[in-house]
Amino acid sequence: MYMIKNKLPSISTLFLSLLFFCNGHAQEKLYPNTFDLNQVTLLEGPFKTARDLNIEVLLQYDMDRLLAPYRKEAGLEPKAPAYPNWEGLDGHVGGHYLSAMAMNYAATGNMECKQRMDYMVSQLKECQDANAKNNPEWGKGYAGGFSNSVKLWPSFKNGDFKVYFSSWAPWYNLHKMYAGLRDAYIYGDNEMARDIFLKFCDWGIELTAGLTDAQMQRMLDMEHGGINENYADAYQISGDEKYLSAAKRFSHRQVLNPLSKGIDNLNNKHANTQIPKFIGFDRIAELDDADKYSSASSYFWETVVNHRSLAFGGNSRKEHFPSVASSIDYVTEDDGPESCNSYNMLKLTEGLFRKFPNAKYADYYEKTLYNHILSTQHPEHGGYVYFTSARPRHYRVYSAPNEAMWCCVGTGMENHGKYNQFIYSRNQDALYVNLFIASELDWKEKGIKLKQETDFPNSETTRLTFIEGDGNFELLIRYPGWVEKQAFKIKINGEVYEHAAIPSSYIPIEREWKKGDVVEISLPMKNHIERLPNIPQYVAFFHGPILLGAKTGTEDLKGLIADDSRFGQYAGGKRLPLDQAPILIAEDVESVGKKLEPISGKPLQFKLNVKMINPAKLELEPFYKIHDSRYMMYWLTLSEKGYKSYLDSLSNIEKKKLELERRTLDHVATGEQQPESDHYMEEAKSNSGNSHDDFWREARDEGYFSYKMATGSQSNLNLLVRYWGFEWGQRKFDIYVEDEKLVTVDNTKKYNISQFKQETYPIPESLLKGKDFVIVKFVAHPNSSSSAVYDVRLVRPN
């Protein structure tokens, strides 16, 4: 292998490696220190069960419906109607689906997955050829399904971004099919996919050739997925330097520059917009000895994992990274981390590990794999989860096949097909055992077969048996960070293997391994707590790496299985008051983790023997097993002296929040990407930003912004708008409902106080009667600006 421990490859070494692998397996060519998916077989256990269920779900999807946007944009007749959900992002799930087919074929040899993969690739080739013929000015090589391509890309090519910025994330959409084609080649060995992929990359280079550097950076201000990663992959696949140059050109300096210097500027940025960029930075660093890109990706990982991630490994709330001051949103808001975020963080982790095989990466990988990824699949119907709420006593909703084409449906399709990807890895002749998952490794190059037998996490042991082959090499076994010092034990053929390793490291064992050798590993798990980032009074319980949660009831699980509606990904059941959830009382919070009592006959289930306010008979169990229920993940933990005043304050806040939620028919979190897209925002001469740990949007000089809002078929409603009380300049604007002026607002120096102010505007019944939706529009006066609008609601009167 070309990779040397803890040392990046030189360009010359890389080029020789590319030539060396030209006749090898495609996956190995791209990620040389990983084992091909077909070299690692999952044995019976939770991950094999999840993978097999996911294949059953995937085979229920209609490929022709997934391909319909691609045929439409190429000028071909679709063979079936396109899926309607998340219109505007037509085609994005098709790319994920192609990746999933390739991965599952590689992992299992399932021939239906291969046939579906090959069919999709052949259809995409037809679309690519039709684009070259039907759209010769801009379409040569195009293999995208983005809606309105014929208007978008010609103007974009000429530097006119009007259509681009009024569209919903075009490059983000295309990134999914770039990745799907790449995966069909590297996992599925489909040579046609390789050809389409490289031609598609050539299309992107040609399309952007006339753009200035400043225009490229402005274009990258919109979410664009991991386009830079795709171009780095094209460079490694082809050896052509033009793709590496393109990867760097598609790299967003707004985050690259500061994070490469150790400056965290992530507050209030859309989380999953950022993570794929850093996967791309890491790929560039992997291929080009690029210190700046390497520093940015590694520092990003450190700050997200150590300061911005929750107990189950996920990150963000309301899809954005909170500041320290707004971290309380993790438990007050419904919208917890997206599954997409963890999908991408694991991909970044794999990339960093390839260069620097450090146990901290595997520790995080294991934690997130069990507690987030595994938990986002329903164990019976196989539905996928978008948001995993950390709010006490809230719940999650699931997708259904052929409905709900969310981003996290796309990544969910892939998640469960990659469980065997990181169990083992290698570095030159060294073999790493990263995860304790029942599996069998076929190390073909060494003629070695290794079987790992374990019931982890139900048991605290795993057993490695060499079932075929002999050889001298170094076996490195991970000593997890959650095992106490001097507690990790190893026996080789019944003899104790002495070591001086510490938690979160690898134990190297170099010897002549022979068929029949057995390595027995003891992994004693301890109970401990983790605190919510920046909110230390909220704690989560762990047994080893396994997050423990508690079911709290099935009250009002509205939309548990989502329909095809625009907002089906949100758990629509009522919020339950935080001050009425179980609250733990303890003087020594760190000791609470030691007060878990195992329940006889129920592995990994515990009673919580701690004094409580609002006590309930709850049992702790692995969070990944909790479904179709409200739950507790984080527990408010207070001292005897402090709880009364804290609860009084919390109770008052909760009453006001829940009363407003009860009255709300529809709500737009202005300035936030997803809520504005969900409400079909239209705008001109408007901009958005973040202040006071909240998002806003404003219009200027006759500009406007508007939202399509649901009335619930009610006609006695008010419009609630939230502003910041201290603003500079002229703030005169009109608010329209259904193109009729509702009110003229002059907020110029109106409040002069640094507080949020909420205004109520009654809506005439004539504008609402008989309408399920209305358009609410904010229009700035000439030579003036609207106020920065932080929140818009349609509400029932008090």
Automatic annotation (TrEMBL):
Domain DUF4986: 553-635
A GO molecular function held by the record: hydrolase activity
Keyword DNA repair among record annotations: no
Biased composition annotated in UniProt, kind: Basic and acidic residues: 676-692
Residues of the Non-reducing end beta-L-arabinofuranosidase-like GH127 catalytic domain: 39-420
N-terminal signal peptide: 1-26
TM ranges: none
Keyword Glycosyltransferase listed: no
Non-reducing end beta-L-arabinofuranosidase-like GH127 middle domain sequence ranges: 431-525
Region feature Disordered, mapped onto this chain: 668-692
Domain annotation Glycoside hydrolase GH146 substrate-binding: ranges: 659-795
Keywords: Hydrolase, Signal
Protein name as catalogued: Glycoside hydrolase family 127 protein
Organism per entry: Flagellimonas aurea
